[in-house]
TrEMBL record:
Pfam families: DUF6134
Top-level lineage group: Bacteria
Record's protein name: DUF6134 family protein
Amino acid sequence: MIIEALALMGTAVVPEDAGEAVRPQPECPAVASPAENLVSPASYDVYRNGKKIGEHSIRLQEDSGRLVADVRTRMRVKLLFVTVFRYDYASREVWCGDSLQQISTEVDDNGTDIKVELTADEIGVLENSHGRFATTNHWNPAAMQASALFNTITGKVNKVTIQPIDAGQSGATTYAVTGDLNIRSTYDDDGNWLGMQFRHKGGSEIEFRRTDEVPGAVSADTQAGRP
């Protein structure tokens, strides 16, 4: 598809320190940040079939009027004390208000290196095709209003249908994301991301549970129905 091809045009090798440096950007006017009500940093444990295999973190900070979102994931699967699978993910998004200006991602998927970079011009093309741009980094609650998400791992646009579902929790909303992606993702009433559940392509149940305290929010255990 043309849109996927455009996304892949933004896939490129980026410097090893890309997750640590913000490229020069045009001046950003004083506008509301999509993270205005969000608690940062945010920490999560990652589970596979109920067993913890890693950690996930989100850090939101301001830089010259822009919002910089740094996202990290580290997972290890061991068998008899031997690591049989490893996964490391690092992504940085730069926003001016509700407009994404830049994204870069580096992934080590069990020895396979994946690097994705998308510039403001390429993001603009995708916005014109799909409306306001959102990514699969989950921290931004506005993503739950989108019909397409930029996959920060594959560099492709995923078409999705997103609907709130009644998960029986108070103070939070769970969304069913279906289509090119199939996950359940939960946010509190202020938009803080509490976690998600999905089935990995190998059949394993993967779950992200928030571990830090969010004032007024239900815990990840409560929203998932665990005692």
